[in-house]
Amino acid sequence: MKSLFGSLVYCLFLFVSDVYGTYRLNRFDPQQVTAQSYAQRRNIARPPLRTLAPSATDNSCRSRPLDLVFIIDSSRSVRPGEFEKVKIFLADMVDTLDVGPEATRVAVVNYASTVKIEFLLKAHLNKPNMKQAITRIEPLAAGTMTGLAIKSAMTEAFTEESGARPKSKNIAKVAIIVTDGRPQDQVEEVSAAARGSGIEIYAVGVDRADMTSLRLMASNPLEDHVFYVETYGVIEKLTSKFRETLCGVDPCAMGHDCEHICVSSNASHHCKCRKGYILNLDQKTCTLKQIKAVVVVEDPCKCEARLAFQMQTQAALQEITAR
């Protein structure tokens, strides 16, 4: 009888947590949440899944500042050894980032039936302290309240009070969710609210992870934000892929078609010409700038005539060099 009563109490706790964690979104624009959900369901039938295929991009990766929050599943289905693999993945990710007060700040949200914010964005602003804090994270065991975890990250971890930079600084806000199961609460609405508030969400599924839920959580385009690995044993190899994605790849370093000079500008690039040349209409190739000589019909011994002769000679030499 006591066992039955205990089970009923536990089920009631899960139900209340579900309702509390997922549906208290009144302070967010309902139209924005609806639009986000619609866009997500419109794309969910498409094949967005990206399996593990790390790229070697270390030489061309430029670090950019982020407010980055890891949301990690430590439910009962994640065995102790597997959870250690997740912690190794987090530590490896920290190693790839430029961590600092004016660079990337990192927080970790740990969840199962309950949610625990292991440390906030303002807590550790150097790599050694941050990696030491990661080693102290312990699994929470039962349940998979992913929606509650996303809401906690949005309302507690991604706030200025917790160390997030203000919108005026234009620092990207990124959440990486790692889970191996099916959420026991609703994730669609709370994920839409998070994306609507400016948080870019990456969803990493492991082993038995529910792919539909991952797609409902992740930002668009889904093919760039949903990842899958077969076991926790290979999750740390995703570090290279996230380094490529989060650091930002230098477009010029990745290859360009500029004849002279390539200039990187955020995610794109443009071409420039060396001194003495002008950019053609194709915005790629360059043509020697023509110097018009001033014809002076005067005494050839005067300074103006000598200057005109020098300019004509220079123009002729440039034309010969170009040929």
From TrEMBL:
<dbReference type="Pfam" id="PF00092">
    <property type="entry name" value="VWA"/>
</dbReference>
<dbReference type="GO" id="GO:0031012">
    <property type="term" value="C:extracellular matrix"/>
</dbReference>
<dbReference type="InterPro" id="IPR019466">
    <property type="entry name" value="Matrilin_CC_trimer"/>
</dbReference>
<keyword id="KW-1015">Disulfide bond</keyword>
<dbReference type="InterPro" id="IPR002035">
    <property type="entry name" value="VWF_A"/>
</dbReference>
<keyword id="KW-0677">Repeat</keyword>
<dbReference type="InterPro" id="IPR036465">
    <property type="entry name" value="vWFA_dom_sf"/>
</dbReference>
<protein>
    <recommendedName>
        <fullName>VWFA domain-containing protein</fullName>
    </recommendedName>
</protein>
<dbReference type="Pfam" id="PF10393">
    <property type="entry name" value="Matrilin_ccoil"/>
</dbReference>
<keyword id="KW-0245">EGF-like domain</keyword>
<keyword id="KW-0732">Signal</keyword>
<feature type="domain" description="VWFA">
    <location>
        <begin position="67"/>
        <end position="242"/>
    </location>
</feature>
<dbReference type="GO" id="GO:0005576">
    <property type="term" value="C:extracellular region"/>
</dbReference>
<keyword id="KW-0964">Secreted</keyword>
<dbReference type="InterPro" id="IPR000742">
    <property type="entry name" value="EGF"/>
</dbReference>
<dbReference type="InterPro" id="IPR050525">
    <property type="entry name" value="ECM_Assembly_Org"/>
</dbReference>
<dbReference type="InterPro" id="IPR036337">
    <property type="entry name" value="Matrilin_CC_sf"/>
</dbReference>
